[in-house]
């Protein structure tokens, strides 16, 4: 009989090295009489001896090696042949697997044998399985097996897994914006082509552990081990694993495991299983301190789901980059030193003038990309759908893959243009130093829509820096305007969305009129945010000046810094509404500072001045700081989080004004036509007729 069992074990797997016991136990005598188990199910049938069938459910939560998400299993264990002394058992182990999506099925069907060796006080076992798994995009099968050595305190096992049939399947492809971008001719290419695979992995795992606690109806064991899996197209997954198992009443088992390798990274898995009538098939047997002989009738510990690697194979896609708004490929006209050809990337034009003389540029729907850092003189008119950019700042392009950084940009080289630019519909200007003389406008447009002006440095000694009239959908961002003779940034008779943000306006040698002047004559949404305005020359007018003549207007003037030296500014922020529509105005988070007192004969400095001549309006003035020199001013502050409704009488009454968290330095003095007041305590509003 023993020879037959040893031959069967050799057929399944080579045995593990025997491990020493830490405690002696007395083997059960061969003639032991055992009370029939689970008689409610099987009675005293001669088919079963000491070990009986048991059924169970196990749920594994979390990811583990080669599997993402939870896994449910419905288990069945059937003893097939038991020796007369109950020291040997041949069994069938089967289960149905369902993943956490409840759509992908798997199965295990295994045949195993165990033999208790009284002279060694060990149970030696081996098993062979056929496994299947629907991994979502591919169906896999494998043959797996293992060997185990179980003692009263120590145990260890080795499992192996070999896929059969289909081992790897491509289930899809995709293109993304990740990867390198490059110019070729007049076009831009880039992106990544990805092939998606699922691959079943060949591997082996091993663990060893021991009992660390025995209590009332409870056994706790700790394990540590390693594993290795590999598949075509995957890195080799060498990893370590650890596990803690707790058995309760021989019917409930809890497992917590942690694994790590470079393919699947660190995964944590928790499982709870219920077996009925019992885990070991000994319903009336021991509830605690199980011996090696008691465990012949339990299911082997192994990876139940086939290990699958979800693979992505990336390669350059060489995809033609397109404008997502039109679906057309972007066409580039390149300008670079030494070029004298057709404007392609390999043979660029030498000057911007030559690029603009090209019929393709004049037709529009083109990007003129200037890679130089040199100077040029000329006046340039953009055709519709034209972008003129330099390599100086980081230049981003909207593509079918989202916003992408243009190769060759962000070099810091900005061409110097002595002249001007005229914008048209859907045009963009970015990355130039523009110096304009002879009373010409530096950047202008008349009747254009969707105009974007960003990342430029503009100087103009005879007129405005940016002047857009009768235009709509305007975006002016991150420009520097210095020593501009007239109004620095002007949007006249505008409408639609108007955004003037993150610009710097400086007057060092010549005064400007208004730093930012916006007038609208139709429905508009105006955002003037985070601009920095500095005037050091007397004669400048307002920092920000907004006027309205028609339409429903929403205006937000936020987080700007306006500074005047020697009372060089007449006012900080001025808003005048003369529209019969509805106005919603928010002026918040601004800092307005005018150093030193006024010179003789100068007008009163207005930090923030809001007036409405027509229509209905609501204005919020919140969290602004408006200091003056403490020698001539008095600090007043509204109480925090208080709202003040104040009424005054311009030509048409202001419906409501709300002031919150407003810091004001107010100048107190007497002059003709003006009455100075002292405002005690913490809250007041000084109203001056319009």
UniProtKB/TrEMBL annotation:
Q: Which residues form the Right handed beta helix domain?
A: 442-561
What SMART domains is this protein classified in?
Answer: PbH1
Key words of the record:
Signal
Organism listed in the record: Gimesia panareensis
Look up the domain of life of the source.
Answer: Bacteria
Extract the ranges annotated as region (Disordered).
623-654
UniProt xrefs under SUPFAM superfamilies: Pectin lyase-like
Gene3D superfamilies the record matches: Inverse autotransporter, beta-domain (2.40.160.160), Single-stranded right-handed beta-helix, Pectin lyase-like (2.160.20.10)
The cross-references to InterPro entries, in alphabetical order and at most eight, read: Beta_helix, IAT_beta, IAT_beta_sf, Para_beta_helix_rpt-2, PbH1, Pectin_lyas_fold, Pectin_lyase_fold/virulence
Q: Which residues form the signal peptide?
A: 1-20
The answer to whether keyword Methyltransferase applies is no
Q: What is this protein called?
A: Right handed beta helix domain-containing protein
Question: Residue limits of the Inverse autotransporter beta-domain domain?
Answer: 72-168
């Amino acid at each position: 009989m023993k020879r037959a069992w040893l031959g069967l074990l050799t057929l399944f797997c080579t045995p593990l090295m025997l491990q020493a016991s830490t405690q002696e136990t007395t083997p059960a005598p061969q003639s032991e009489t055992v009370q029939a188990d689970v008689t409610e199910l099987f009675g005293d049938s001669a088919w079963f001896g000491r070990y009986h069938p048991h059924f169970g459910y196990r749920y594994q939560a979390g990811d583990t090696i080669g599997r993402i998400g939870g896994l449910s299993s419905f288990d069945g264990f059937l003893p097939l042949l038991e020796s007369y002394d109950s020291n040997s058992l041949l069994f069938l182990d089967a289960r149905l697997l369902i993943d956490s999506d409840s759509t992908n099925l798997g199965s295990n069907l295994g045949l195993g044998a165990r033999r208790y060796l009284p002279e060694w006080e060990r149970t030696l076992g081996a098993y062979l399985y056929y496994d299947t798994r629907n991994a979502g995009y591919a169906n896999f099968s494998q043959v797996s097996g293992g060997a185990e050595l179980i003692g009263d305190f120590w145990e260890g096992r080795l499992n192996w897994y070999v896929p059969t049939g289909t081992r790897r399947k491509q289930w899809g492809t995709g293109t993304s914006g990740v990867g390198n971008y490059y110019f070729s001719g007049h076009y831009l290419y880039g992106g990544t082509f990805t092939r998606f695979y699922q691959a079943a992995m060949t591997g082996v795992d091993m663990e060893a552990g021991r009992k660390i606690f025995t209590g009332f109806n409870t056994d706790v064991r700790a394990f540590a081990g390693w594993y290795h899996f590999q598949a075509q197209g995957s890195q080799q997954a060498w990893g370590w694993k650890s596990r803690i198992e707790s058995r309760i009443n021989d019917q409930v088992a809890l497992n917590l495991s942690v694994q790590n390798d470079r393919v699947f990274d660190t995964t944590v898995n928790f499982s709870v299983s219920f077996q009925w009538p019992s885990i070991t098939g000994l319903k009336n047997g021991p509830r605690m301190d199980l011996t090696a002989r008691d465990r012949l009738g339990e299911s082997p510990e192994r990876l139940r789901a086939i290990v699958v690697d979800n693979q992505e194979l990336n390669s350059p896609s060489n995809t033609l980059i397109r404008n997502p708004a039109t679906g057309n490929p972007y066409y580039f006209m390149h300008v670079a030193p030494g070029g004298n050809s057709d404007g392609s990337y390999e043979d660029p034009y030498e000057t911007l003038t030559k690029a603009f003389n090209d019929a393709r540029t004049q037709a529009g729907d083109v990007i003129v990309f200037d890679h130089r850092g040199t100077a040029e003189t000329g006046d340039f008119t953009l055709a519709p759908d034209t972008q003129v950019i330099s390599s100086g700042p980081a230049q981003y392009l909207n593509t079918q893959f989202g916003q992408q950084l243009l190769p060759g940009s962000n070099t810091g080289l900005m061409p110097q243009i002595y002249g001007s630019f005229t914008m048209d519909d859907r045009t963009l200007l970015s990355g130039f130093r523009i110096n304009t003389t002879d009373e010409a406008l530096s950047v202008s447009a008349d009747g254009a829509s969707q105009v974007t002006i960003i990342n430029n440095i503009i100087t103009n000694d005879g007129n405005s820096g940016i002047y857009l009239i009768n235009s709509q959908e305007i975006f002016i961002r991150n420009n520097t305007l210095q020593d501009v003779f007239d109004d620095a940034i002007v949007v006249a008779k505008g409408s639609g969305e108007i955004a003037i943000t993150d610009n710097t306006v400086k007057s060092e040698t010549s005064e400007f009129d208004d730093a930012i002047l916006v007038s609208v004559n139709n429905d508009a949404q105006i955002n003037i945010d985070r601009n920095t305005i500095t005037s050091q020359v007397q004669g400048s007018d307002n920092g920000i000046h907004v006027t309205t003549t028609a339409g429903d207007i929403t205006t937000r003037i936020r987080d700007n810094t306006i500074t005047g030296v020697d009372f060089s500014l007449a006012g900080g922020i001025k808003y005048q509404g003369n529209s019969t529509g509805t106005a919603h105005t928010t002026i918040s988070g601004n800092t307005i500072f005018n150093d030193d007192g006024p010179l003789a004969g100068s007008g009163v400095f207005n930090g923030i001045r809001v007036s409405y001549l027509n229509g209905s309006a609501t204005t919020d003035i919140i969290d602004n700081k408006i200091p003056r020199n403490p020698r001539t001013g008095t600090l007043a502050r509204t109480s925090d989080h208080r709202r003040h409704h104040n009424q005054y009488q311009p030509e048409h009454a202001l419906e409501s004004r709300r002031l919150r968290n407003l810091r004001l330095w107010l100048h107190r003095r007497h002059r003709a036509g003006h009455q100075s007041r002292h405002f005690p305590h913490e809250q007041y509003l000084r109203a001056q007729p319009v």
